[in-house]
What does this fold into?
Amino acid sequence: MANVQDGKTPGQTRVLLVDDDQNMLDSLGRLLRPDHDVFTAHDGKEALSVLESCGPFTVIVADLKMPGMDGIELLSRVSRAHPDTVRVLLTGHADMQSAIDASNLGYVYRFLTKPCPPEILRLSVAAACRHAELVRDQRELYALRRCKSLLEGVVKGFSALVEARDPYLAGHQQRVTRLALAMGQELGMGKDDLETLRIAGLLHDIGKVYVPADFLSRPGILRQEELSIIQMHPQVGYEILKHLDQDWPVAVIIRQHHERMDGSGYPLGLSGRFIVQGARILAVADVVDAMCSHRPYRQSLGITAALAEIEKNKGMLYDERASEACLRLFREKGYSLTEQADSL
Ligand SMILES: [Fe+2]
It folds into this structure.
């Protein structure tokens, strides 16, 4: 029967000791209990049952010589059924070759010879716990990388979907993102904020999926009701993305990318400090790229006119610092909208 210890601390590492010698279990238990939540079993069969009913365990320490199932057989089974449990084998000198074989076969993380000095055993179990933590961290990192790669694919897929519906939007979100990121760097934004800005830039017009395609490509002036529908796209984009992590303001930036500093923008008519920094930057980048692009109702107005618009309205319609960063990039640092943005 497993000997579940009283007073265990939640989150403490759990160690299972397996030995047919009760005195050995008692002394190992006394040694390890201050640092670990210790369980015990008297043979391999009982150990497997404890692993099933009380697991997961961080570390299992098993004696080699036990009646019935020996320590190597037990740890080889544990390696298959509970691969995250780090396995330590206790062995006599005479069984050294068996222990080396078990180690080479991957059943055992470390083996210790009996009689084992208490400090060596204590340090070995501590090392096994750190190893378990490292393995868990690596797995979490791998899962995060997979998630990030999946998110990247979804973001780029959605971005392409919007642009496919509107021939005049081709490449727009990529160019806006590239310019917004350059402006963000110019303003000294941190890595996390730049990443948020990147995702928001790539998706900022996602709400246009709601707009009938012929509104987007029809030449001539739109009627007021058609314009009203197009002007809903920041709010629609927000609705699509608002369930993303609450601490990740991509949806908020998208909702605010047509707001203006004097409150004359849409959809909420927010002004000044109520507009987040990412949206202020995106707004300037969006205007510059839109003015430089052909539209169904007009030709490109060109970069000179676009920069003149930003200069004229900086501090009124557009955030002053974002506007100045944009002007600096084009006028002093040779920035160009036509460069490739493939690496976004
Ligand atoms: Fe937009």
